[in-house]
């Protein structure tokens, strides 16, 4: 069916048409369409589609989801439909636009037949369940000190180029290893950045268990605005199928800027920093759709874990969008430019990071480890100011300084290395009892990598689970000491 016949079909169905009176791309002002309602899909006779954004007394303002120019005088008609996108298993492994159209592999793309409205109601409290299952990120400093839970909304915040996207790569690798589905929303990125990300995911084989929703900075601002909502709608489809989903929004600072552009072009009254007055509501409506929810008859549950990114300028956490999102989410992971400049990767500032839900998912052992390490590292930071006294330091202080240094070396990890929890616990035990005091940083990194490789073997995996399967930190250290030679052999062969 061609464009004209589709237009005529809807025109005949609804019995009314309008005309484009003004264009401030991508916002079109229309006359006519007296029965148009908010969020309704509008069809232009040239084939473009739009969504009703503002309904005034004598006109309608519509968001056009295309970069193609629209001429004044073009006829339009209503569709009496709300914006929907195709969702289904066919999207897994694909790179798509917010409207569900393929960006890569167009010839082999099979469009899903199931459609889902993009603006879904948030689940009620009685439809949700307590978050009680940990989300393993594969990043030791996060899993041990700033734990996350499946269904949590955790903000990732920091300056540009401090390793936030690299951090995502590690989480994706670990979650795919555990069988989760990952949906990555690249919001208004540069084409080169999108290309590098897609190539990395393809080369590593991770794209097979991902859905990549992308818009670049040259796309229409209305299409960029839709990107995170499309990703969340797809996630909800798989959640309702009983699949745990991880959704990454990279990033909501860009999303807010493009939404501001759309609102200003629509002549909506600007608020603080010229953002529209409903920017908090818009982001809250998006992020509240994540969580752990009942599915089917309520006997089972599945989760959507959401990790939005927001960018800071000179580590300023008090910006408008930044504080909005910190108020909406269940905590934040702060990537500090000073920590990054000191050479630590990932550049997470533990003292300024918060998790409000993750700790309730931890085992008794991990709660004790988190408490012990947090207190020790705070003490270590203070002890460093005395380290220049050299020989005047007590033996206990020297021992603790060496242990603190070794812990930070352990927490440094390449984004391509995702460490299972059992590997983290066994390596931590070796460091805590002083077994690895004589190892260099490079040797420690190589030991971590080799133990992760050996973990792929079922026998090794079972053995590490036996060693780490205890209730207290003291028991863990004792078991690691008893199996010290065995663990060292795993790291060096």
List keywords for this structure.
single chain, Elongation Factor Tu (Ef-tu), domain 3, Rossmann fold, 3 domains, alpha/beta, Lysin, 6-stranded antiparallel β-barrel
Explain this structure to me?
- The protein has 493 residues and is α/β, with parallel strands linked by helices.
- The protein has three domains: 3-82, Elongation Factor Tu (Ef-tu), domain 3 (Beta Barrel); 86-362, P-loop containing nucleotide triphosphate hydrolases (Rossmann fold, 3-Layer(aba) Sandwich); 366-492, Up-down Bundle (Lysin), CATH 1.20.150.20.
- The protein has helices at residues 3-14, 140-145, 164-177, 191-204, 221-240, 252-265, 279-287, 320-328, 337-341, 364-383, 395-411, 421-432, 441-455, 458-468, 473-482, 484-492, and strands at residues 17-24, 27-32, 40-44, 49-55, 60-64, 75-82, 84-87, 95-96, 114-117, 134-135, 148-149, 155-158, 181-189, 210-216, 245-250, 291-295, 300-311, 331-335, 354-355.
- The radius of gyration is 26 Å and the shape is elongated.
- The termini are far apart.
- The model has no long low-confidence stretch (mean pLDDT 91).
């Amino acid at each position: 069916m061609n464009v004209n016949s589709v237009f005529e079909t809807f025109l005949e169905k609804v019995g009314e048409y309008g005309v484009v009176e003004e264009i401030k791309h991508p916002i079109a002002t229309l006359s006519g369409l007296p029965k148009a309602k908010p969020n309704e899909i509008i069809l232009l006779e040239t084939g473009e589609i739009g969504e009703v954004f503002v309904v005034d007394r004598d006109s309608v303002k519509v968001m056009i989801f295309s970069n193609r120019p629209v001429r004044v005088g073009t006829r339009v008609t209503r569709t009496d439909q709300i914006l929907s996108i195709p969702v289904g298993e066919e999207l897994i492994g694909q790179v798509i636009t917010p409207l569900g159209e393929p960006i890569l592999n167009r010839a082999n793309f099979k469009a899903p037949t199931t459609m889902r409205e993009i603006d879904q109601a948030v689940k009620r409290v009685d439809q949700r369940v307590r978050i009680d299952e940990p989300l393993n990120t594969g990043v030791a400093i996060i899993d041990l000190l700033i734990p996350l839970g499946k269904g949590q909304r955790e903000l990732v915040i920091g300056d540009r180029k401090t390793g936030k996207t690299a951090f995502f790569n590690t989480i994706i690798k670990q979650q795919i290893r555990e069988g989760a589905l990952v949906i990555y929303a690249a919001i208004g990125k540069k084409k080169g950045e999108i290309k590098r990300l897609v190539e990395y995911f393809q080369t590593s084989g991770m794209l097979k268990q991902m859905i990549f929703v992308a818009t670049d900075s040259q796309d229409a601002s209305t299409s960029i605005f839709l990107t995170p909502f499309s990703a969340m709608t797809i996630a909800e489809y798989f959640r309702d199928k009983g699949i745990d989903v991880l959704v990454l929004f990279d990033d909501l600072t860009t999303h807010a800027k493009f939404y501001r552009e759309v609102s200003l072009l629509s002549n909506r009254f600007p608020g603080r920093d010229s953002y529209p007055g409903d920017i908090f509501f818009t982001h809250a409506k998006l992020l509240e759709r994540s969580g752990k929810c009942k599915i089917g008859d309520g006997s089972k549950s599945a989760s959507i874990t959401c990790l939005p990114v927001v960018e800071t300028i000179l580590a300023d956490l008090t910006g408008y969008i930044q504080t909005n999102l910190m108020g909406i989410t269940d905590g934040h992971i702060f990537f500090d430019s000073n920590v990054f400049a000191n050479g630590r990767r990932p550049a997470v500032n533990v003292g300024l990071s918060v998790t409000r839900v993750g700790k309730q998912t931890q085992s008794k052992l991990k709660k004790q480890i988190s408490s012990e390490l947090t207190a020790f590292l705070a003490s270590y930071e203070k002890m460093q100011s005395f380290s220049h006294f050299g020989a005047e330091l007590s033996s206990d202080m020297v021992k603790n300084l060496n242990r603190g240094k070794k812990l930070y070396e352990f927490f440094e990890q390449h984004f391509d290395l995702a460490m299972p929890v059992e590997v983290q616990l066994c390596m931590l035990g070796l460091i805590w009892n002083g077994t690895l005091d004589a190892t260099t940083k490079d040797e420690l990194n190589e030991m971590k990598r080799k133990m992760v490789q050996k973990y792929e073997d079922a026998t090794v995996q079972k053995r590490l689970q036996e060693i780490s399967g205890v209730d207290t930190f003291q028991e863990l250290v004792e078991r690691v000491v008893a199996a010290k030679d065995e663990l060292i052999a795993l790291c060096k062969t």
